[in-house]
Write a structure and sequence with these properties.
With 447 residues, the protein is an alpha+beta fold. The chain has helices at residues 2-7, 12-64, 129-177, 200-233, 235-250, 254-282, 296-311, 332-348, 375-380, 399-410, 438-441, and strands at 76-81, 99-102, 112-118, 121-127, 291-295, 316-322, 324-331, 353-359, 363-368, 413-419, 423-429, 434-437. Strand 8 and strand 9 form a beta hairpin.
């Protein structure tokens, strides 16, 4: 087994040649053994049965007619000893017992003999060995040799076809080896560049490599997004911490120092949430996220209260409007990130008026009476780092981009409507959500 493994080492083309050589050797060995077996069959079975028949034919006629002639043809000679009289039998046959075998007649001559007897008489049938060899050749060697030649031809055709297929694999391997990932251009392979475009195996292999390129491009893009998002979004909380550290050095009053520490603590919590969000977006799958059944009414009420306190705008009122309970199966962290970004964005861009959360049978609507957006801003609002006409607020324009990516990741439908100077409405629909009216749930409507 180890010798076979060593023999099959090398590149793909070399392995293919060695496999076909081993196949040819195995076929040749099997054919030689078949030829040898065929020769034995011709000699041991066919000739023996023929001589048995000749002997029975002679004895049946000899019993009726003592003068019945012995077999004497070009290939077969017959001799008969009567009792102890061996005068008509060649000397080299005198000691041969009954049976079927080869006998030594002289140098270079070992004919096949068949000896039988009836009473005291003994019949010797001598079959020409040259004829036996000819029969073995015509009935054994010649057909099997033709079969062997046919197998060799078919093996050669198989090798040529396999080598063509392997050449496609080799070309693909070279193309993948020389693929320039650093250029940032993830170009797909075309089956036409590696052989016949109608070859299903080549097409399947090229498609598999193209799928790998797509996944790799996605990995690299997520890495770039994570680096870009982290480098921009973490600047603001780090700047806040740095400024508060300077204030701590100046303040001696314990209450003022405690207020600064509380502000820094909230900033650290925001940083942790942001880092968690960015890491979530950088992962390919959600296998580590725990999915649970959540009632969005309760979650939104809590998030709305936290966001209102954090933003701290007394001129902006907020409330939740629902006529039933909306239940979804999703990771709570993801929903918190999505709605926190939307609520913070709505309150940040609303100087006075209202921010309302509306829950219906399909999903959730967050509506504000803020500055609103023009058609151009509305078209680009979910793009990373895009900020509309109002740039007075801090931030780098990643909140809505994160919301869109998470909604796409989990299959939620995200849409927005806005009018400049009137306000903005953002809606998230949950295709598999369950809605129970308050009359069925046994609770009262919220407002």
């Amino acid at each position: 087994m180890n010798a076979l493994n060593r023999l099959l080492k090398g590149n793909l083309d070399t392995k293919l040649v060695r496999v076909f050589i081993l196949q040819i050797l195995a076929i040749s060995l099997a054919t030689v053994m078949g030829v040898y077996a065929a020769a034995l069959v011709v000699e041991r079975v066919l000739v023996q049965e023929a001589l048995n028949g000749e002997a029975e034919h002679f004895w049946s006629n000899y019993e009726q007619d003592r003068s019945f002639p012995l077999p004497n043809t070009n290939n077969l000679r017959g001799y008969l000893s009567r009792g102890s009289d061996f005068s008509a039998v060649p000397v080299w046959l005198h000691g041969e017992p009954p049976g079927f075998r080869r006998a030594w007649e002289g140098p270079g001559s070992q004919p096949v003999i068949h000896v039988s007897e009836r009473g005291a008489d003994r019949l010797y049938l001598v079959f020409d060995e040259v004829q036996v060899s000819s029969l073995a050749f015509y009935f054994g060697i010649a057909p099997l040799t033709g079969v062997l030649l046919l197998i060799y031809v078919l093996t050669w055709v198989g090798y040529v076809m396999s080598r063509r297929a392997v050449s496609t694999v080799v070309k693909l391997a070279d193309a993948v080896r020389n693929y320039d990932f650093r250029s940032g251009r993830f170009e797909k392979f075309s089956p036409r560049d590696f052989g016949d475009a109608g070859d299903s195996e080549t097409v399947a292999l090229v498609n598999a490599i193209n799928q790998f390129i797509t996944r790799l491009e996605s990995f690299i893009q997520r890495e770039r997004n994570f680096t870009r998002n982290a480098s921009h979004e973490l600047r603001t909380p780090l700047a806040v911490i740095k400024a508060n550290l300077n204030l701590l050095a100046k303040f001696d009053d314990p209450d003022r120092r405690q207020a600064v520490l509380d502000r820094m603590a909230r900033t650290v919590v925001d940083m942790e949430s942001l880092v968690e969000t960015l890491l979530l977006l950088a992962r390919e799958s959600e296998s580590k996220l725990t999915t649970s059944s959540l009632v969005l009414n309760d979650l939104l009420r809590e998030l709305l209260e936290q966001t209102s306190t954090a933003v701290g705008k007394d001129s902006v009122e907020s409330g939740i409007h629902a006529r039933g309970l909306l239940e979804v199966d999703a990771p709570e962290r993801v929903l918190a990130i999505v709605f926190t970004n939307l609520l913070r964005n709505a309150m940040t861009y609303t100087e006075q008026g209202r921010v309302d959360v509306i829950i219906d049978q399909r999903g959730v609507v967050i509506r504000d009476t803020g500055c609103g957006m023009c058609e151009e801003d509305l078209e680009h609002m979910f793009e990373p780092f895009y900020r509309g006409h109002d740039r007075s607020n801090e931030g780098y324009g990643l909140g809505l981009a994160i919301v869109r990516r998470l909604c796409n990741r989990f299959g939620w439908d995200l849409s927005a409507e806005s009018e400049l100077g009137v306000g903005t409405e953002i809606r998230i629909d949950f295709p598999r959500a369950r809605f129970r009216p308050f009359a069925e749930a046994g609770t009262r409507p919220s407002s």
